[in-house]
Amino acid sequence: VLGVSNFSFGLPSREIVNHNFLMMALTKGLDLPIMNPNIDSMTATVRAYKLLTNIDKNSVDFISHYGGEKKTAPAATGAKAEIDLPYAIENGLKKEAADLTAKLLQETEAMNIVNDMLIPALDKAGAEFEKGKLFLPQLIQTAGTAQACFEVIKNYILSTGEKSVSKGKIILATVKGDIHDIGKNIVKVLLENYGYDVIDLGKDVDYQTVVDCAIENDVHLIGLSALMTTTLVSMENTVKLLRENNVDCKIIVGGAVVTADYAEQIGADYYAKDAKESVDIARKFFGN
Ligand code: B1M
To answer: By alpha-carbon position, which residue is closest to atom 59 of ligand 1?
Structure first.
């Protein structure tokens, strides 16, 4: 326990000394500072310390004080205390969201849950993130929650799919520099569900890795996903390297930032706007 302001007695601009001294003391193990809670720089120092040392998990306290507009839980607003799936995803309530997904699957088509609830919730989070109303730790929480729901849906889809002999092999990858893989994973599950063998190279995949994998595994259909304007160039570079190496393959491209025009411009063979379209393309390609 330490009275942190006495130290600056007799100095000008005491506040500057006090909050810096407070941070030094906190990093040396101070548990309880005695300080004036009405001085913003002092409370801000404590909040920043908790954020930087991860005592404030997921930056919840920091964001609620400095992130502008606050979200209020439904119970607190007096609205219905029950939460629904979009609310659970938007607020990062992983367990609740996974349970609600399992319940919904009893009466709703799996892909309808994805298209009508999961994707809109992610879109909303993305739009708020862009406007600066939602912050990265919250976006990560939302994405993690959507992934937990998707895991439930994936297991359901795979358990109900036909277990036939493979109809063909397809490589999937999220391009270099891009770690967004939720969309690619949906494409994968749907393709597998329709009987295709998917070699999933994951996210942030190097151009050469795609080329090597296609040659080594004798794969003739390759799917690339990109979610950011900044990683479209990686998609183009991957296509280019596949062509330069004369890999005998057709290429499907997709992802929120990709358009049919762009696909044509970079020399891809197909553009798929969603997971279902990638299945239609695979069917056309393999003739089954
Ligand atoms: Co970020 N992110 N993100 N993000 N993120 C976006 C893409 C963004 C648009 C948000 C925004 O600002 N509005 C923005 C990109 C802006 C731009 O283009 N320049 C953005 C940014 C900036 C970033 C970071 C840079 C943030 C930061 O660090 N400051 C960082 C990027 C890091 C990196 O990649 N190097 C980042 C990180 C993250 C999280 C980790 C928090 C998380 C990703 C978690 C994960 O994927 N494992 C995340 C998320 C969730 C999003 C948003 C909110 C949602 C993306 C998503 O999953 N959508 C996104 C905003 C948005 O898109 N509304 C955003 C749902 C998914 C099912 O849709 O992937 O489009 P989608 O897939 C669809 C179709 O497109 C299609 O089928 C799917 C199902 O129908 N499809 C294919 C996709 N791939 C296909 C391939 C095919 C065929 C169809 O054939 C092969």
So the answer is: 126
CA–CA gap between residue 151 and residue 132 (Å, rounded):
29
Q: Which of 111, 139, 180 is the pocket-test mutation for ligand 1 (most atoms within 8 Å of CB)?
A: 180
Residues 184-222 have pLDDT tens digits of 999 998 898 888 999 999 999 999 999 999 999 999 999
Ligand 1 atom closest to Cα of 278? 88
Q: Are residues 130 and 183 in the same domain?
A: no
User: Tell me, what's the pLDDT at 75?
Assistant: 44
269 and 182 within one domain: yes
Q: Of 222, 159, 157, 152, whose CA–CA distance to 189 is shortest? A: 157
In 7-136, the DSSP E strands lie at 33-34
24 and 113 housed in the same domain: no
Over residues 2-29, mean pLDDT: 96
Tell me which residues have their CB closer than 6 angstroms to ligand 1: 119, 122-123, 125-127, 129-130, 136, 139-140, 143, 172, 177-184, 186-187, 223-225, 227-230, 252, 254-257, 272, 274-275, 278
Contact yes or no for 113/152 (Cβ under 8 A): no
We report the CATH number of the domain holding residue 148 as: 1.10.1240.10
In a domain, 34, yes or no: yes
In a domain, 138, yes or no: yes
Q: How many helices (H) and strands (E) does the chain have?
A: 14, 7
Distance in Å, CA 86 to ligand 1 centroid: 18
Task: Specify whether 11 is located in the same domain as 118.
Answer: no
What is the pLDDT, as a whole number, of residue 70? 54
Q: Is residue 116 domain-shared with residue 221, that is, in the same domain?
A: no
Domain's final residue, options 95, 130, 160: 160
Residue 76 vs residue 133, higher pLDDT: 133
What's the predicted TM-score (pTM) here? 0.82
Contact 180, 123 (CB under 8 A): no
